[in-house]
Amino acid sequence: MTEDQVYTCIHCGRDNTEVPLIVFNYKDGNFQICSEHFPVLIHRPHELTGKLPDVENLNPVDHD
After folding, report:
1. Domains contained in the chain, number
2. Each residue's pLDDT tens digit, 17-62
3. What's the pLDDT at 64?
4. Which domain covers residue 1, as residue numbers?
5. What is the structure's pLDDT at 3?
6. Does some domain include residue 64?
7. Has residue 16 been placed in a domain?
8. DSSP the chain
9. What is each CA distance from 50 to 4, 7, 24, in whole angstroms?
10. Exposed, middle or buried, 9 (CB in 10 Å: 0-12/13-18/19+)?
């Protein structure tokens, strides 16, 4: 990360001065999601359509 680069949550747009961010790699890209919205990535990835490439191909975790 460069000095002027700010990481933000792909779901809510808050940055790392506001919330803890989890950095992950997907489709050769680096993304960040906040700890509050991490469950969205796991359980409701369809909510990230348009924010994460090919997210419609991810299968949500079902605990039933």
Report:
1. 1
2. 999 999 999 999 999 999 999 999 999 999 999 999 999 999 888 8
3. 64
4. 1-51
5. 65
6. no
7. yes
8. --TT---B-TTT--BTTTS-EEEEEETTEEEEEETTTHHHHHH-GGGGTTTSTTGGGSPPP---
9. 25, 18, 17
10. buried
